[in-house]
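Researcher: I'm preparing a figure for a lab meeting and need a structural model of a single chain. I don't have an experimental structure, so a prediction will have to do for now. The sequence is pasted below. Please return the structure as tokens so I can convert it later.
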Amino acid sequence: MAHPLDITFAALADPTRRSILSMLLEDDMAVTDVAAPFSMSLAAISKHLQVLADAGLISQEKHGRVKWCKLEPDALRAASVWMQGFGQFEPVNLDAFERFLATELCDPDELP
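Model: Understood. Here is the structure written out token by token.
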């Protein structure tokens, strides 16, 4: 069985999943809304969401026929504590993490 940190870092390793997390920083979203900006099938997005859910980074809840996704910000706590053990990293600040993701995921032509 994989260590929880391995699962967390594996989930964060994919740029699509990092982009999804960035989107969920704003608000909870329906799966179809999460899928809208990506040029891949709903099934592919669902697989990405399952990886994030398995890592505990998001939760999913069904309301009627709509499945909603919610960011679980405390899920990064163990990874943050582990990185702090190296003495080179500040505690994870979710606002700073959001700004970092926005910078990393934006189109270079959109930079000021």
